[in-house]
Structure formats: C-alpha cells, structure tokens
C-alpha cells in the first residue's frame, strides 16, 4: 500500500532536497588543487619545463655550510641535512610556474568547497608505496599530521594551528577539518608537507635528533652518511610515482651529494678542485673577480644566472620596537635616512645589488606608486587608526632616500637631523638626547658570518647624528638565542618571502606573534590595522584580492618604519662543471635543477681533460 504524502511535507522535502543539491554543488572534486585560479597544466602528461626523454644517470653534487646531525627536518632539533626533502613525497606537488596550484602526487584528486574551506578530502593513489614496499595509507597521513601538531617544531605547529583534526575516512581517503572556513592557504599547506610512515615510528621518538635512515616514499633513499661532513642519496629504483605527470623527465640523477664546509672560502676552493659540481655563488666580489681560473677559461666550468619570478628575500636591519629608543617611530624614520645604499652598492657590490623597495619585491604583490582607487578603498576605514607618520606614508609614492654615492650622504643626514629636531630630540656636544633628556644608544647585533664592513658606513652615519652604536658580533647559537628572547635593539636579518602569502604573514607581522618566543615578528609589531589586513589576505577569494590586500599590507609595513630594507639580487648565480643539460623551457618559480640531467658526451670530455692534467 502506497501512502500519500501531505502537500506541505512534500514541498518541504523538495525544498530540502533542492537546498542540499545547492550545498553539494559547491563542493568540487578535481585532479588538482587550485585556490581561486585556473590551472594551466591539468591535462598535460608532462610538465612544460621537463624533458621526458632526459637520460638517467650520473651525479649532482652541491655544497652546504656548517654541519649536520639530524635526518628529521620536521622536529626542529639539531641541524637537519640538506636534501632530506627528497626522501619524502607530499600529498600533491606544487607547480613551478603557477602560484597556488598543485598537481597529483600521493593524492590523485581532492574534494573541497573553495568558498567555504571548512574541510578538504584527499583521495590517495592506491599505488602509493613507501620505499620499503609498504603501502602508504590514510593512517600514515593522519599519523604524520597528528605528530606535526604535537611534536614538530613550534613554528610548524603554529603554521598548522588552523587544522582542527585529521580524520581517516577509508584506507585511501583522508579528511582535514579546519577551525575556520576562509583560510585558502590551509589546503595548500597540508598538501605540501612530507608524509611519514606510521610503522617506521612505532619504536622511535619523533622529537629526538637522529641519523638513523627514515622510511619515505620519495624519489631518493639514503646512500651514504659521513657524519657532519657529507651525505649522499641514491635514486630509488622502485619509485612508485616516476610516471606521474609531475615526475616525467625529473629526478634524472642516480645520486645526489651534499658536501659540508666550515666557511664559504673553503667551499669555493672545494668547487674549483671538483669536490662537488654545482655551486651557488652568493659573494658578489667572487662572481665579478674570482672566476678567471683555468677551469673557467677552458670552458670546463660554466656560469649561469637564473632569473626567477619569485620574491626577493627580506634582507633588512630590524628595529626592536618593544623597547626604547626604537619604540619611537620618529627616531626609526630618521635612521632610515642614515642608510646609504648607493655608496655601499658602488663601493662594495660592483653595482650588482638593487635596493629593496618592498617586502614583496620582484612580484606583482609589491605596492608601487601611489595607492590605486581599490587600495584607497581598503585603507579608508582604517586611516584614522594610524600614527600620523604612517597615515602620511601609506598614501605616498614610496621610495627609500637616495644618496649621491659619494660616501658622505650629506643631504639625507640633514633631513634626518631635521626630523629628529622636529620630534623634540636635541644634540649636545655631538651626542643625541631624546625628549626625556636620555642619551640615545643602540646595540646592533650581527652574526659572525656577517661582514662588518657592510655596516660600518651606516654606523658612521649614525655617529654623525650623535647616536652611539655598539656593533655586537656573536656566534650563531648566541645570535639565535638573543633574537628568540627579543634581546636586541637592532639586528641584521634575512628572511624569505612567499608568492602566495597567507597565515604565515601573521607570524611575521601579527600582534600575537610579537610576544611569542621562537616566532618571526622580531620587530615586535602590534598594529591592529596590520592584523586586519593579514586576516583579509588569509580570507581572500581570488588572486586579485590577495594582490590587493598584500599591497596594502606592504604600504603599512613600510610606513611603520619597522625595518630598513636593504638590498637583494633579482637573480640567482650558479657555476657548474660543464657536464649538465637543462630543458629548453625554464620554470618561473624555481631553478628546477631536478629536471636537469648529465650529458654523457660532456662528462666524457671532462673526464678526458682531467686525465690529461
């Protein structure tokens, strides 16, 4: 017997059904992960910056400074080894040409609602295996993230703070549930972290330093460890993912090797004597003057400039605004005029550096010129909350002061003196006193590896302003401990920036991070407008919104005079023994050396040439 359903109930059921369809329709399942952008390579069988016919074989060897004692780079203990990331696969693999786009690796597809990111489901590839042959399952993924949230280094735990829990749905399905529903970075973050084997850690302590090999699912496995001196990896002969689109023509070297040196000079000599074959040159003087030895002159060594579309590192002089005298924005603004980049670039850097004008330099995220109408619209509700100096700075066509490169910097120092005088500072007997009559003294903290000669012109200019400066050079452990405890006035620092800004910006500039040890807000910035702009970046629904809010953040950071941005290079410099080939098309966001390969003919000629000598 079929019962009739009352009209009202039928209408309600239909309405609920229709509503459910609308909700479900927002959840998309795709063989890629793209946050508010359209992926360019979703249908390709091989990435455009790869040569699928590249031969396998040979070795790529590089150098590293210092030493190492830990294969587990995720627990934040000791000194982790170079290249350890090649032991592991991630859920998806980043495109080297597209921000916020990832393609299948351990996971073959994902389900999520791009407009309400409360969760994301990854569907693991059933073929995924660890290098010991054991299947990689959702249990391993859950173990990995549960461990990260409880035993990883503090920075990573904070990076994952928006992850509420990881849930196993089936052997090959894992669900990440987030605390908020608007953090577009979280799916990309969880998709990009290495996955560990749960079985491998049953009788091991994740939080301890270890040189015992770790089971991974990546393209390489440990070959040989010479503790503290070198580490080499060999290509996994049974790598499960070698035929995926992201991996065709990739990982062509049979072996990778990293040789450790105590300092750059010894490292360079090691490269010249072929102790390793690929060298990234970071010393401008070397690049301009030291490559005239026989290996270069005979063509056995090639120099190579990689032009990347990635942000330049934030290299800066950091002001600690938590304590006097640098808690005064008037003083910080004046000190900006004492930094003479033009003379330094001419006298020390062969005019090869360029002045950083943005915290996102070399990208479309950098604020340029006067604010656009869209930027002004974003700023308008907050302008009244800003300090008058910031209020003026955010609407300007921002440029740091320019000197005549003579070394005297007279015009800028006169400007600095006027700013200080207008702010109530006084000079008595060539010494600067603040508004309370206290002598202005600053300690400038730096690591032993920093070159004092780069800072002495700045120190001399501060002395001309009547400021006493103590240049304090300490070893790396002492330096890290002091900045961790915020025990400094000024310091020299270098920090990478990202093309896809998100929640990490709160660690760099957010009010909460200012009071947390081991975080990256070294300036101690506590500005509610900056906090609000970071929230807008995290919640952005499109790349256009990310660019808009980041440009406004850039303006706020510059106008707050929290740091003096110094200099950077718009390219990376390499030298290599001439046995390598590269694909014709280069990736825009990475050097992409894992797509290089050994040219057998060139290797043979090099061997014959060395044998002759």
UniProtKB/TrEMBL annotation:
Arranged from A to Z, the UniProt key words for this protein are: Signal
Recorded GO cellular component terms are:
ATP-binding cassette (ABC) transporter complex; outer membrane-bounded periplasmic space
- Which Gene3D superfamilies does this one have? Dipeptide-binding Protein, Domain 3, Periplasmic binding protein-like II
Pfam families linked: SBP_bac_5
GO BP terms: microcin transport; peptide transport
- The residues the entry assigns to the signal sequence are 1-25
Protein name (database record): Solute-binding protein family 5 domain-containing protein
Q: Which organism is it from?
A: Acinetobacter venetianus (strain ATCC 31012 / DSM 23050 / BCRC 14357 / CCUG 45561 / CIP 110063 / KCTC 2702 / LMG 19082 / RAG-1)
